[in-house]
Amino acid sequence: AAATFARGDLEGRHIVISAGGTREPLDPVRFLGNRSSGKQGIALAKAAHAAGAHVELVAANIDTGLLSVLPADITITPVESTLELQEAMHSAQERADAIIMAAAVADYRPAETTDSKMKKSGDEGLTLRLVQNPDILRGLVDERSRQTGLSQQIIVGFAAETGDADTTALDYARSKFLRKGVDLLVFNDVSDDRAFGHDDTKVQIITSDRGDVTVGEEFLGSKDHVSQKVIATLSDKFTH
Ligand code: CTP
Ligand code: CA
Description:
It catalyses: N-[(R)-4-phosphopantothenoyl]-L-cysteine + H(+) = (R)-4'-phosphopantetheine + CO2; (R)-4'-phosphopantothenate + L-cysteine + CTP = N-[(R)-4-phosphopantothenoyl]-L-cysteine + CMP + diphosphate + H(+). Its EC number is 4.1.1.36, 6.3.2.5. In the C-terminal section; belongs to the PPC synthetase family. In the N-terminal section; belongs to the HFCD (homo-oligomeric flavin containing Cys decarboxylase) superfamily. This is Coenzyme A biosynthesis bifunctional protein CoaBC. It comes from Brevibacterium siliguriense. It is a single chain. By secondary structure, the chain is α/β, with parallel strands linked by helices. It has helices spanning 39-50, 64-67, 82-93, 136-146, 169-180, 223-239; strands spanning 14-20, 24-27, 30-32, 54-60, 75-79, 98-101, 108-110, 130-132, 154-161, 184-189, 200-209, 212-215, 219-222. A hairpin with a 2-residue loop joins β2 (24-27) and β3. Bound molecules: cytidine-5'-triphosphate and calcium ion. Cytidine-5'-triphosphate is lined by residues 101, 103, 105, 107, 133, 135-137, 157-159.
């Protein structure tokens, strides 16, 4: 059955949502990026707002046309790189009753960024050296456990997974849920290439109930519909 929330379920709650995809600068005009449009995060922001929350959206490289559909009282903080996103999330964390990390975060960034435009040299190819980015979600979970004032905060992650020969996409998602220490993990099955840039998405919400990992039923629908389901599940966490 489609879970829906009642208007007002998140009344008085402050929800911080990251959305879009990070861009890792190489030089003043070039970056390494990904195809995330930000539509999922925008749909979540709308759903949380409709449930009565005060919403803060940290928007990584989202088209202004997409952002313009949002209610005017949603605070938007634009960021580009993973390090900028990390800083924005950490400064928003202290205000948040819940955090939803829907952004597609680059796992790596160029080891060096130059202040002037890179020039070609000779006829050779180019090898870029990358370094690993911080795991923002992990950092937020760790910070929550360090600060007693944040102990009630609910943290939600997203995971787009594909399966392979010996591990299913769901198995990968289940271990990611445990590894990340989040309260909810929205598992997006992208084996059939549904997620990126499209309007329909297939998810299962992984959560835990008194220590037991529970995997919700497969839920297929528009990003708006999926977001309502996520917000309804999040609202339940507050009331329990
Ligand atoms: N995430 C994050 N910081 C990163 C990478 C990911 O906060 N550096 C968040 C994403 O926003 C998402 C969740 O972690 O909510 C899972 O992202 P995913 O890329 O699936 O996880 P990774 O830990 O990067 O694992 P993988 O090696 O499978 O990419
Ligand atoms: Ca990753």
